[in-house]
Amino acid sequence: MEQTHERAHKKRGLLWLLLFALIICGLGAYFYFQKDPVPIISADLLPEAGDATDQRLSERAQEIADANYFTLQINPEAVFEDGNSSGSIEIVNPGTNVYPIAVDITLSNGELVYSSGAIYPNQFVENVNLITPLAKGEYQAKATINIYDPETKEKQGVTEAELTIIVKN
Q1: Are residues 57 and 77 in the same domain?
Q2: Where are the transmembrane segments (predicted)?
Q3: Which of 19, 48, 112, 128 gets the highest tally of CB atoms within 10 A of its CB?
Q4: CA gap 20, 11 in Å, rounded
Q5: pLDDT tens digits, residue range 97-139?
Q6: Which residues contact 69 (CB under 8 A, 6 or more apart)?
Q7: pTM score of the predicted model
């Protein structure tokens, strides 16, 4: 009986040892396979071929950022000799833009006095005729700049600029 008790005691000890070993192995496997995931870099940021150094990735990221950046140059004063003649308005869509624009100018009462049509990057509008002749005076106006996708030609956004239209005679 003593031997049976001793065997049972050894079996129980062996089971505890085996259970402890399984727990240790399980914890080890958990921490081994619990590594930080490798960061994924967007395909847009990867260079076409060659070494993907930090500088090349940085340059590519800057190119993408520049493509999404929009600038506009517009003179805050449009000057006309008289309400029927052409005048200086100076709208520039710089070559740094990728987006074509169209500019509509309305007076403070909402009346449309000028519409540019498409102005592509690296193009400008300098002298224009007003749609509606204006009498001598200064008029507060708003230029609504519509920004379009260069491929689909769908409107991507709108921005506005205040300006003054001056009719001399």
Answers
A1: no
A2: 12-33
A3: 128
A4: 14
A5: 889 999 999 999 999 999 999 999 999 999 999 999 999 999 9
A6: 96, 97
A7: 0.62
Are 52 and 86 in a shared domain?
no
Contact status, residue 104 vs residue 72, Cβ threshold 8 Å:
no
Same domain? For 156 and 127 the reply is: yes
Q: Which domain holds residue 51?
A: 2-65
Q: Dihedrals φ, ψ of 39, to 5°? A: -65, 140
Q: Computed over its alpha carbons, how large is the radius of gyration of the chain? A: 36
Query: What DSSP state is assigned to residue 9?
Result: H
- Residues near 98 by beta carbon (within 8 Å), at least 6 away in sequence: 67, 121, 150
Q: What are phi and psi of 73, to 5 degrees?
A: -120, 125
87 and 25 fall within a common domain: no
**Cα–Cα distance, 31 to 25 (Å, whole number):** 10
